[in-house]
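WARN no homologs supplied; continuing
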Amino acid sequence: MTHLTSRLITSPDILEHEDNHPVIIIDPTQEQIDQVVDFCRHSKKLFDVYVYTSDTDDLMYLSHVTKIAEQVLISDSSHVSIKNLKEQTIYGPNEKMVNPLDYFKNIDNIA
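OK structure emitted
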């Protein structure tokens, strides 16, 4: 029997798109990553969470994962700029979405 689970993915890894909901979080804090990981452990929905930080400096990787992600969450303090994305949300203390966890909670309620 296959055990299905959410997955946290970092550069240079790219996983085959399966039934998991692919999301990329750009420049999250460690606390935000920990919150999302903890949430995914108990979520009804399965996620592939790609984490990209500015210091990764791998634009080919970033370009690839933004194409497979259903949602891109970018910190308002990030220096990363991505053009022509269909679904991107800026998060931060002065934004409508304060924390990436807000997105996951909202999507989980829809499932």
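The mean pLDDT is 88.
OK
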